[in-house]
């Protein structure tokens, strides 16, 4: 069993590492066509079955607050990167679907972004360390949910 001091120290280390890496990735992000937050939404949708997700579920996956996600979705909708569709089983729900144009822009930006991630994460950690970090991060996330 860990002590309070161990848990707090571990959290501080994890949090500060995450912030440092995110700042570096944001500064290196290929910002020509979409923002870092728009990429996050397009990435999340690209990982879903049929590249679609209920708006309320999308809010759970991205790092923005719900009002910010709604405004961001409206901007992506205006550029035809996403489409809004009614939820077939619940008239109150909205499905956000990644369009072909949205998937194409996501893929173009992802190539450069993945290179930056590889440099920042893969340059600091061995393959075994990356696997261990992923397993520990998933364990923490699963416990929090």
Q: Explain this structure to me?
A:
The two termini are 21 Å apart. The protein is mainly α and 145 residues long. The chain has a 3-stranded antiparallel β-sheet with strand order 1-3-2. It has 6 helices and 3 strands, in the order ααβααββαα. The chain has helices at 4-28, 36-46, 55-61, 66-78, 100-122, 127-144; strands at 52-54, 82-86, 94-98. α1 crosses α5 and α2 packs across α5 (100-122). The chain has one domain (23-144): Winged helix-like DNA-binding domain superfamily/Winged helix DNA-binding domain (Arc Repressor Mutant, subunit A).
CATH architecture: Orthogonal Bundle
Strand content: 5-15%
Which fold name corresponds to the CATH topology?
Arc Repressor Mutant, subunit A
Based on CA atoms alone, the radius of gyration comes out at 17 Å
Distance between the termini: 21 Å
Largest sheet: 3 strands, antiparallel
CATH superfamily: Winged helix-like DNA-binding domain superfamily/Winged helix DNA-binding domain
Stretches where pLDDT is under 50 for at least 5 consecutive residues are: none
What's the total helix number? Answer: 6
- Domain unit count: 1
Shape: globular
Which class in CATH terms?
Answer: Mainly Alpha
Mean pLDDT: 90
In spatial order, strands of the major sheet run 1-3-2
| Structure class | mainly alpha
Number of E-state strands: 3
> How much helicity do the residues have?
55-70%
SSE run: HHEHHEEHH
What characteristics describe this protein?
145 residues; mainly alpha; Arc Repressor Mutant, subunit A; 3-stranded antiparallel β-sheet
């Amino acid at each position: 069993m860990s002590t309070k001091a161990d848990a707090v120290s571990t959290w501080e280390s994890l949090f500060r590492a995450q912030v440092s890496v995110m700042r570096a990735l944001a500064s290196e992000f290929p910002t020509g066509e979409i923002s870092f937050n728009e990429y996050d939404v397009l990435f999340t949708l690209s990982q879903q079955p049929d590249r679609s997700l209920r708006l309320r579920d999308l809010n759970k996956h991205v790092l923005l607050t719900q009002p910010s996600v709604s405004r961001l979705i409206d901007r992506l909708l205006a550029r035809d990167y996403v489409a809004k569709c009614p939820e077939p089983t619940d008239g109150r729900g909205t499905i956000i679907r990644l369009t072909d144009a949205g998937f194409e822009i996501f893929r173009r930006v992802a190539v450069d972004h993945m290179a930056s991630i590889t440099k920042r994460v893969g340059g600091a950690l061995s393959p075994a360390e990356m696997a261990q970090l992923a397993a520990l991060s998933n364990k923490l996330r699963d416990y929090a949910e």
